[in-house]
Amino acid sequence: MRHAYRSAHPPHHTPLFRILGAGTLLLLLGAAEVQAIPAFARKYKVSCALCHNPVPTLTEFGNAFAGNGFRFASNEPPRDTVDTNDDLLDLMKDLPLALRMDIYGQTFTNGETAPEFQAPYNIKILTGGPISRKISYYLYFFLFERGEIGGIEDAYIYIDDIGGGPYDLMIGQFQVSDPMFKRELRLTFADYVIYRTRVGDQVADLTYDRGILGIASPGSFTISAEVINGNGIAGADLERRLDNDPFKNFFAHVTSPVIPELRLGVMGYYGRQRGQQTETAPEVTNNLWMAGADATLALGLLELNLQYIHREDDQPTFQSDESKAKTDGGFAEAIYRFRGGRWYAIALYNLIHCSEPLLDVRLGAPPGISRFQQLTLGGGHVLKRNIRLMGELAVDFEQDFTRWTLGIVTAF
């Protein structure tokens, strides 16, 4: 689809650029960080610069490529297929594969942690592409994630231009927050913390989940709607069930450019989760909802990204007599791309506050906090189209420490 939700946003970014850069890496919208991989560059024999400036930020063409399901044009016949004499089979000659590796060095200035080599920090195996005129796929496997096998995160089927109209559908595992800003495209090691924050014992957040994402682009608007399990992508229970309660959660996002330089969006989320019943504790259900707004302002070489979310959980620790927890937070991001596209400077500010000491940001900070505040300043250089050097300083105002990070991100 020409205006898949990806194209509704000026390029977004990934910490170490989930670049997988490759020519048209585009990260297929997919509420799942839809990324692109060097296999696409090899397939189309183009430079990664066609879709990225710098990697992993998407160009206008890269946005369209992603929205078309990893194709140069909507309804483009699959390329490099085997002639099977079967009109119902578009079989790729070769399975597109790519590797991505992140290497970091970090040190903390609180005097408690020695400098360390995080080499490697992540290694991914990625694959994706069209499997018919309308259907594509994308997935990646964390071969190595912070010292362990990470398993599969993004994994979905993407159906483009359903019924010949501006309607797309994605089914599988993806990140709930992708219609707003894609964590996998950010340029910082520091995260968009509000998306990964959990409250109490409630596991629902705005990162990975399993479900269905629908995207419609009538006119200048892009509308995204999700129906998800609401409990992340953990393994199945003893009964081989992936959803641990009878409820489904719902997410919706609407975005549109107000003027060419300014895009605005609004979001809503509603969900329920049932706590585990025991002999001494009754079964309790937590009801939660979120509402928020996001914006991107492009001023020449400067881009500003803003996100705000309000969240309420009525029984986040599944205790019948507990108080409602109200959470407010978001982030502000500024990116300056120097002329030539190979150097950039970036600032990212995260702030979250909860009425109860129940926050868990899952970033090394202790759980059960009521406030998280962090400022990150950094920059980077595109050494080669698929090799990015980066450095940043993160100051945590609540935990009272600073973190220096130097890194190399590459994909091939």
The dominant shape is globular
Output the CATH topology.
Porin
Helix content: under 10%
Separation of the first and last Cα atoms: 27 Å
Low-confidence stretches: 1-35
By CATH, the architecture is named Beta Barrel
Count of individual domains: 1
- Structural classification: mainly beta
Spatial order of the strands forming the largest sheet: 3-4-5-6-7-9-10-11-12-13-14-15-16-18-19-20
CATH C-level = Mainly Beta
Number of helices: 3
Proportion of residues in extended strands: over 45%
Largest sheet: 16 strands, antiparallel, barrel
Brief sketch in words of this structure:
The protein is built from three helices and 20 strands.
Give an overview in words.
The chain is mostly beta strands and about 400 residues long. The chain has one domain: Porin, CATH 2.40.160.10. Helices cover about 5% and strands about 45% of the residues. The protein has helices at about 40-45, 60-65, 195, and strands at about 80, 90, 100-110, 115-130, 135-145, 150-160, 165-175, 200, 210-215, 220-230, 250-260, 260-275, 285-300, 300-315, 325-335, 345-355, 360, 370-385, 385-395, 400-410. The strands form 3 sheets. It has a 16-stranded antiparallel β-barrel with strand order 3-4-5-6-7-9-10-11-12-13-14-15-16-18-19-20. A two-stranded antiparallel ribbon has the order 1-2. Strands 8-17 form a two-stranded antiparallel sheet. β9 and β10 form a beta hairpin. The relative contact order is 0.15.
